[in-house]
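[job 4417] fold queue: 2 targets
>>> target A
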Amino acid sequence: MTRAAPRPEPRLRAWEARTDVGLTVLSAGFLLLYACEVLLTRPGSPAWRALETLLWVLWAVFVADVAIRLWLARDRWRFLLDNPLDVLVLLAPFLRFLRLVRLVGAVSVLTRTLRDDLRGRVSAYLVVTVSLLGFVAALGVYEAERDVPDATITTFADALWWVLTTITTVGYGDRYPVTTEGRLVAAGLMIAGIAVLGTVTATIASWFTEQIQRSRTEAARRDEPDPAGPGTPDPATWTELLAELRRLRSRLDELEAAPGQPPG
């Protein structure tokens, strides 16, 4: 049974075109504010409260954007299936680890402009996405682990090293989260690492397949017969043949004009 083609979404696409730039700027600001909150302040301080308030306001903007896009979409089920990160943003108030899920909105908006690109730009998409997710995961696990007794991730440098070994699936085991929130970050990062490796492998395999197919096509093109038929003269030969035919025609005309003369 043939699947129905996706319904066009002109209103949704128009909204995204108008808001992508502004939301991307807000997303970059969101990540910067969150980094400042984690690295430069401590919970309960005046600076921490101010940054926390700004983060909640920006997160509310992301939620409003998702809600509007969902309302504009003709096929809402397809929208939800195609935008799982945005669904997490909508479900954030009902999740225990709200702080981590708030970051999903910022990351998803920052990478939205690359989401529908062709395979040739997969590398750029991977670099942006992995860098953002790795940075966010390092901030999240550092915030969750830094003040916990018996924690092995006590500095941001430890968090970055842990992210690198986790997302590449190496897993040395010298740094690991001990809190529930930190383990939640680890689970998401492990899944992201597997997805990244699978995407890279598929991209490289696709590139090799394309190169092999192109080489075969070029080789077949060099060996294939001329479309006009075997042994067809080139244009220069055609010119010489036409000139020779004209000379023969002129000679025949001369012979016909003088019938009493012997040929020769």
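>>> target B
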Amino acid sequence: MPTFRASDGTLLAYRVLGDGAPLVCVPGGPADSRYLGDLGGLSAHRRLIVLDLRGTGRSAPPVDVSSYRCDRLTEDIEALRVHLGLATVDLLGHSAGADVVTRYAARRPENVGRLVLVTPGARALGITVTAEDRRALARLRRDEPWFPSAFAALEAVMAGTGDDWAAVDPFFCGRWDEAARQHRAASRPVNTQAVAYFGAEGAFAPPATRAALTALDAPVLLLAGEFDLNSPPKAVAEAAGLFPHGVFAVQPGAGHSPWVDDADRFTSVVAAFLERRAAR
């Protein structure tokens, strides 16, 4: 597994899958990037450079735990770009990884080629998802056999009287079967320190980020899952409106990991966007 040094000396690892023009992929969580797999076969279209964020997967933990903050992680993206010898970098961020990618684009717009934000986190942009937004989306699944118990667990979590996130898992998936169960388990963060510091004070500066993105010339695809309780389509559409060249798309029947729910549809949408460079 190839490695490189971050600006503070932390040893970071990444996987390389497929051939073609590189696409740097940033996982959410922060969790072991193995849950991304090859993004449903996207490696047939691009050479995926899949980063393990510091303290996850095979990347070393940092000496300074404050470097787990989202804004600090952008420097690891820059170090990887330099390590790969790329003048500009195409980036894909999933979930909280999209927050990292967004902050990187705001800080270093000149280094960005294209962005793909998959079921993106909204904290970097200061977008709020209300409890009622989540309830309305959850009720779309009311005919599913698991709905009554999952909805009760969701209500308890939102009310602060429960924390059984595993019971809420079906709402994050387009279909709830054994493959979905295994994927949800694999995507859970294990480094509690990395999770705690990711959104620590100073990690996000939405007004400044929004202002900086007005100058971003890069095309940006923001892909939502129709049923995704984490990143509802309404919030993703709002985020798309903040990018000068933002393209909003919804994958029907998908949850928070759309490449798991329908790999062919996911790869066709993302690959087509990435290949439209000359038409822009």
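[job 4417] complete. Note on B: The radius of gyration is 18 Å.
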